[in-house]
Amino acid sequence: MKIELSDWRQLLRPGDYVLLLFATVAVAASYPLAWRSQQNAQRVRIFANGTLFAERDLSGPARLAVPGPLGDTIVEIADGRVRIAADPGPRQYCVNAGWLEHAGQLAVCLPNRTAIELPTAVPRYDSLSY
Amino acid sequence: MRRLILHPIRHTPIPKRDTLPEDVPADPMPSVPTLRATSEDKQVAHMAAVAIGLSMIDAAFPSPIPGIKPGLANIVTLIALQWYGWRVTAWVVGLRVIASALLVGSLLTPGFWLSLAGAGCSLLILAPFSRLPKRWLGPVGLSVIAAMFHLLGQWLVARYWLIPSAGLVYLLPPLATAALITGCINGLIAARWLTQHPHSTPIETGP
Fold it and tell me: Where are the transmembrane segments (chain A) (predicted)?
């Protein structure tokens, strides 16, 4: 049985073309929308001495001094990213962590007992089997 | 609600009381309840049987990516929609979801809830769309929109109940692409079938 292209075209009604067009546009648009919006975290949570010190939006530029036992840890927020700009700790691990922008990242300044975290929704299940 | 007509089977024909001969004993089993299938029941059963068969093929289909399945049973959904309307289709889909879950052994597992959410969501969107004039909207359009809403229903259940993680949004674009393609193919198959069989074949009605 030979099937011509025109045979298949006859199967489509005007509304089918409209819905196909809508669906194709929606699918095409979903790539940039879904894959960009999630890459960057929206908020940062700043901890001092084990308790939440502040929760800030990542959009605006800001500089915060977070007090700790050794002195102030300086948290800098700019362009949807956040970093520990300065810390009184001896090894500077959290400063060297650099800019954080992805949800789930964190930088901890253990000696000064301060930390920044980009929160994610915590999965309720440890695992899921099919 | 579906009407299940309970009616008694009598083993012996009951003569009228006034003509009852003295030697005929009383009916030993007065009534055995049985289900009489209406013609709509037979339509539902007929379509659901084919749909369950196709969903078994679907379940055995080697999927390149988890979550992507051809959804062949939806060809039956589209044909049922054209032949019998939305009500019968809803029954066909519901029976297919439950029966194929029983056969695969996934009843009440996450996979079952995903399947139920997808089926329910696509039925909801098909309710208004299937009432549009058939001259303007055919099986392909219905299939594509149903596939999209099937995915949406599944994704919402996965995102907010099974795996409440923001990361699930990453899966949406590739799954939507697959839904668009499989929706298109299933719609074309159903549309082609319906040009050759525009009306339902009469189902043999037994006793």
Answer: 17-35
Q: What's the CA gap between B200 and A45, in Å, rounded?
A: 62
* DSSP H or E segment with residue A117: strand A114-117
**pLDDT score at A125:** 44
pLDDT at B206: 53
Q: How far is CA B96 from CA A6, A12, B17, B165, in A?
A: 34, 27, 47, 30
Binary contact (B140, A124; C-beta < 8 A): no
- pLDDT tens by residue, A50-63: 899 999 888 878 89
- Predicted confidence (pLDDT) per residue in B5-54, tens digit: 555 555 555 555 555 555 555 566 667 777 888 888 999 999 999 999 99
Structural domain total, chain A: 2
Question: A8 by DSSP, 3-state: which?
Answer: helix
Please tell me whether residues A54 and A112 are part of one structural domain. yes
For chain B, give the mean pLDDT: 85
Structure ipTM over 0.90, yes or no: no
- Domain span at residue A24 reads 5-37
**Most A CBs within 10 Å, among B145, B157, B175, to test the A interface:** B145
Chain B interface includes A29 (CB < 8 A): no
Q: Does A106 share its domain with A61?
A: yes
Q: Is residue A70 part of a domain?
A: yes
**B66, B164, B180 member nearest A24 (Cβ):** B180
- Angstrom CA distances, B10 to B13, B14, B21, B29, B170, stand at 7, 8, 18, 8, 63
pLDDT of residue B1: 47
Across the interface, which of A16, A38, A123 has its CB nearest the CB of B137? A16
Chain A stretch 52-81, residues whose beta carbon is closer than 8 A to a beta carbon of chain B? none
Q: Where are the domains of chain B?
A: 38-196
Chain B residues whose beta carbon lies within 8 Å of the beta carbon of residue A11:
138-140, 188, 191-192, 195
pLDDT at B12 (0 to 100): 53
